[in-house]
Design brief:
150 residues; alpha+beta; seven-stranded mixed sheet; 7 strands; globular
């Protein structure tokens, strides 16, 4: 039996035409990638943010998880999956990825790719992603490309 989140959750798709709405997604990403993993802010926040489909998960009106779906012109990419440290282990990352996959199916995106941090490969494999290619460094963290056919 699959464990469901025990928190009272609200899920919101962000309208990138209102840049201030992106701040909740950026808050989670700053906490996880910039503060925890020491990724430079200039690498973490990029121009793709302005044309991505972003999702934010809230508990008690506080943003706690986020992710984005982006088309770089030839490939659909899921990325920036992040969950605040105190909220991990509650299936929120899974929820974010599942919602992004649902959106990619609605968009008839075809195969969806992700650059998974090496420690998260098994997480994505459980969601049906398959690793390909050689490991590479992104923001000085080892990653591997993965794909899931939609």
């Amino acid at each position: 039996m699959e464990k469901k989140p025990e928190l009272s959750l609200k899920i919101k798709w962000i309208d990138v035409k209102n840049p201030e709405e992106l701040e909740d997604a950026f808050y989670v990403r700053r906490e996880v990638f910039i503060k925890e993993q020491n990724v430079p802010e200039a690498e973490e926040l990029d121009k793709a943010d302005l044309s991505s489909h972003h999702i934010v998960v809230y508990t008690a009106d506080r943003p706690v998880a986020t992710g984005r779906l982006f088309n770089d012109g030839k490939t659909w990419l899921i990325g920036r999956i992040s969950v605040l440290k105190e909220c991990r282990g509650k299936q929120l990352g899974r929820l974010v990825v599942e919602k992004l996959l649902e959106r990619s199916a609605e968009l008839e995106a075809g195969p969806v790719h992700i650059h998974a941090q090496a420690h998260a490969v098994s997480f994505y494999e459980k969601l049906g992603f398959i690793a390909y290619g050689e490991p590479f460094l992104e923001a000085n963290i080892e990653h591997i490309s993965m794909v899931k056919k939609i």
